[in-house]
Design goal:
heterodimer; A: about 270 residues; alpha/beta; Rossmann fold; 2 domains; five-stranded mixed β-barrel; about 35% helix; elongated; B: about 350 residues; pyruvate-formate lyase- activating enzyme; eight-stranded mixed sheet; about 30% helix
């Protein structure tokens, strides 16, 4: 599996960058090493939304990616302890009243709590908020659930305050708080790293490319390309044979639609036999 | 990797509780039964069940329970995919959405975006709807036949919630109501103390052991289902046997012949109410939705025909199945008690 870690602040990212030996790619602004990437989104809805909406330009391996949001959060004083790490099981968006629920399918060692995403820091009426409070969670959920299934969205929140600070910038040692839990964060990532969570794939990249190139060579229509993909999948699932016999059909570029359709029919016959 | 491997949380590790579903008896029973589960309160069950981005098969490895209050409609007219078994006032309802089992050929994985189990806790509303429908059923000289296990396996759920029991007891208060309870489970023991009634048809889906092992994940073995059938017959219940779907693969006739012979040796067909037979079939939307997820099962990569929006095997294959069943049950059960899906 690949992990895409999202933090709002550089101060939150620093211990993660260090423990995984990540290096910043100056073009993409992603910190990377092997199967771990990290993006700093900035604080608040707008910045987070903007960064994530542009993410597809620099990151594409979503079929095998687990997205992990790591960050500090305010905590209800009766339910949370400062410095403790929690797993989020439901996110309420205070602004639009929507509710977002990640799928928690795999075992983990953390206490689970709800998270409310707010527009401004909370420092009064704190008892109105159960669980945790942050400023990005719902936006991360909404944006990233376009790319990965809900069981590959993980929200880990570390309580930095009991909603008794009027400005999050006054939280003194964010890096230190995360650093104290970095071993736990790392162990959670390691425990999630299992191939069973990846998307099902029938066509390997090599076969997929061969079909795409073949379809382009034959000038197949979109529907024909889709059918060809489907036949290829059927063939692989049912026979488990390789596709060497298909390659000769892709050599010659047809001179007319009629010839193209003729070749296409020959491929259909090949697969039916 | 099996579902039970340590990587995944156990089924029902989480219970999503719709705010409106608090204080119902079924809710309290479930919360007591799964007292170690994490309870997450939600405004509406659809906010969990209908989320985009769920992966049905991965969720099957750790199913969650959703407790909700059903809103109307509470009862539906039978679709052409369901076999009415000769009952003209044929309806179904959905006390539970989704199933504890995970059969390859099941339409639920295409019908629902989620593999999580929804239990509707407002039994009273469903009963009232049945009573209203009984009064306006099209054929007043015949009972209303209600399939209560259409979008689930209700009997399999009986050790979690006694819903089958409640429906059976309820049917006894409604002389014009018949129930069909279709199952693959062996939970008959949990209702065996109830006095049998001709208003209830207990239906078991039976498949060759090879099919059970390969295509009916998490279901009880054939031999245990047969034992449950035997017990039900002995207790005086009407029993329907369902060979539905009969799956076609090389040598399917041999496996299904072995199945029929095994049944003949263990059960007297005179005591069987009727038999329903069907082949693999699925609405094209459901089929395409499942196919998009690239399922493991080879069933979704075979050749089918599209018969007016229904993906199914060819007419000649359907006929072959019918001939096979009629030939091999000839003399054991009258032909008019064998119902074929077509």
């Amino acid at each position: 599996m690949h992990f895409l870690i999202l933090t709002a602040l550089k101060a939150e990212a620093l211990p993660i960058i260090e423990v995984f030996g990540l290096r910043k790619d100056s073009k993409t602004h992603l910190y990377q090493n092997n199967n771990i990437s990290l993006l700093i989104t900035g604080v608040g809805r707008d910045k987070t939304k903007e960064r994530l909406q542009n993410l597809h330009q620099v990151y594409s391996n979503f079929d095998q990616t687990i997205v992990v949001n790591v960050g500090i959060a305010g905590g209800n004083p009766h339910q949370t302890k400062i410095g403790e790490l929690y797993r989020v099981n439901v996110i309420f968006d205070e602004e639009n009243k929507q509710c977002f629920i990640p799928d928690i399918l795999c075992r983990h060692p953390l206490t689970e709590l709800s998270l409310t995403t707010v527009a401004k820091s909370v420092n009064k009426d704190r008892d109105c908020f159960t669980g945790l409070v942050d400023m990005e969670g719902s936006v991360i959920f909404r944006e990233m659930s376009r790319y990965v299934p809900l069981h590959r969205l993980v929200f880990l929140k570390l309580v930095s305050d009991h909603m008794d600070i009027d400005d999050w910038r006054r939280i003194i040692d964010v890096t230190g708080l995360i650093a104290k839990q970095i071993d736990l964060i790392k162990s959670i990532l390691v425990s999630l790293d299992h191939h069973v969570l990846t998307n099902n794939v029938i066509l390997s990249d090599k076969v997929f490319d061969m079909i795409q190139r073949g379809a382009s060579q034959l000038s197949l229509t979109e529907t024909q390309t889709h059918q060809l993909m489907e036949w290829t999948e059927n063939y692989i699932k049912l026979t488990e044979n390789d596709l060497e016999r298909l390659a000769p059909y892709f050599i010659k570029k047809p001179n007319s639609k009629k010839e193209r359709n003729h070749i296409f029919e020959s491929i259909r016959e090949l697969f039916s036999t | 990797m099996s579902r039970s491997e340590n990587y995944f949380l156990p089924d029902f590790s989480h219970i999503y509780l719709e705010s409106a579903a608090k204080e119902y008896e079924f809710t309290n029973l479930c919360l007591d039964r799964f007292s170690n589960s994490k309870v997450v309160e939600i405004p509406d069950y659809k906010s969990v069940f209908n989320r985009p981005g769920q992966d049905f098969q991965t969720q099957k490895r750790s199913m969650k329970l959703i407790l909700a209050v059903k809103k109307p409609p509470f009862i539906y007219k039978g679709s052409n995919m369901l076999q009415d078994g000769g009952f003209r006032n044929f309806y179904y309802n959905t006390p539970i959405l989704n199933c504890l089992y995970n059969c390859d050929y099941c339409f639920l994985q295409g019908m629902y975006p989620s593999a999580n189990i929804v239990v509707f806790v407002n039994q009273d509303d469903m009963e009232k709807a049945v009573e209203s429908e009984i009064k306006i059923r099209p054929y007043l000289d015949e009972p209303l036949m209600l399939s209560i296990s259409y979008n689930t396996d209700l009997l399999a759920f009986e050790n979690i919630l006694p819903m089958t029991r409640l429906w059976i007891e309820y049917s006894k208060t409604q002389p014009d109501l018949n129930l069909e309870i279709r199952s693959k489970s062996t939970m008959f023991d949990s209702i065996s103390d109830i006095e049998s009634t001709d208003q209830v048809l207990l239906a078991w889906t039976l498949s060759p052991e090879k099919v059970v092992n390969k295509n009916e994940l998490d279901t009880p073995p054939l031999i245990k289902r047969l034992k449950a059938v035997q017990k039900a017959i002995k207790k005086g219940w009407r029993v329907r046997l369902c060979f539905d779907p009969i799956l076609l693969y090389s040598d399917w006739e041999k496996d299904y012949l072995d199945l029929l012979n095994q049944i003949k040796s263990e059960i007297s067909f005179n005591e069987i109410f009727d038999i329903t037979v069907g082949v693999f079939r699925m609405g094209q939307d459901y089929f395409n939705r499942i196919r998009k997820t690239k399922p493991e099962s080879k069933l979704y990569y075979q050749k089918y025909i599209n018969d007016a929006g229904v993906i199914t095997v060819s007419q000649s294959d359907r006929e072959a199945v019918e001939v096979f069943v009629r030939e091999n049950l000839s003399g054991f059960i009258p032909e008019d008690r064998i119902h074929f899906w077509d």
